[in-house]
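Batch manifest, entry 17 of 40.
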Amino acid sequence: MSQEPRKISTELERAFEQAVDLYQTWTPSLVEPTIQFGVETFTISDICRWVAQYSNDAPINVCKQINYYLDCLRDKDLREKLGSDCSYAAAANCLLNLIERRKLSGR
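Output type: structure tokens
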């Protein structure tokens, strides 16, 4: 018997949408953006790590925005992954990879 995927909370969904938005203007010369979640603040990478636990479908606008970021890159592997799987887990892992790659490139 297949178990239903655990549903992401509305609060975490909103935090992830903020993380996706904040990635666009962030550069590694700045401190990684943070998001208020509950009573604490977390980096956008932290939010991605939490969201990566959820396999249910992410909103199409979130996947489109991440795909937009990927269009500017030669990172075909991430584009293919998100193209075949628009779950929260795939979207969060793609964004986390983008963050790490941006840190490594320094741009």
